[in-house]
What does this fold into?
Amino acid sequence: MKIENSTLPSLAAALAAERKRQQLSREAAAAACGVSVSFIRDAESSPQNCSLGKLVQLINGLGLSLQAQGFQVTAQANTRRSKQAPLRADYGVSEAQIVLSTESAADSPTEAHQP
It folds into this structure.
């Protein structure tokens, strides 16, 4: 699933479905994943308001994996620095995609990084 604001509800639904599939209450999932109950509620309803680090902690705690496939990093110069070079170069990857799966990282085949 490509992660954009329009696909975040699908991420929220997938997290809730996995928690329920494992028959975990929000309290039990929070304890197992090391996050708060309110974070579980937010991740399942408004993941766009959650930090990526905490989402990854929840995803891993539920036994899921999150894989980034290709990404683009750019930095726009602010108005004060507009005549200077960008702070960070574009790495030239055209599209970012994040995949949520039940395959553990140890079972996942390693792909070579291609520039």
Summary: Residues 8-21 form the longest helix (14 residues). The first strand starts at residue 65 and ends at 69.
